[in-house]
Amino acid sequence: LRSAAPPGLGMEVMAPPIINALNGSSVKLSCTFNSCYKVENKQFSLNWTYQECSNCSEELFLQFRTKIMNKQLDRFGNRVEFTGNPAKYDVSFTLKNVQLEDEGTYNCYVLNPPDRHRGHGKISLKVLTK
């Protein structure tokens, strides 16, 4: 029997485990969270990372530190657009003109102080040719 988490330990991140996208299309990688606390831009932090394979290192490509920062990785160029709204507990982004090489794991890490726990969502992107 699980007891309810004590107050302040309750961050939960929701992300679909697998997303299929058509080669050349745009796809929204959805990541939302809930927290007992209002999002304060000065404290809130978000990292989106990409992993080509399960033991590959994670590449940071999108970050929120007081404002959204797009790292413009060569891999994605200008195809990443932040479409979330942290104040509404949404940190999703859209990947435009999806390429076969975009396949892999996308990790969404959210920290919303005073929550002490960093939330983590994980999406596996599969790219379909038809």
From TrEMBL:
Gene3D superfamilies: Immunoglobulins. SUPFAM superfamilies: Immunoglobulin (SSF48726). Residues 7-124 form the Ig-like domain. This is SCN2B protein. It comes from Mystacornis crossleyi. InterPro entries: Ig-like_dom, Ig-like_dom_sf, Ig-like_fold, Ig_sub, Ig_V-set, Myelin_P0-rel. It holds the Pfam family V-set. It is a single-pass type I membrane protein.
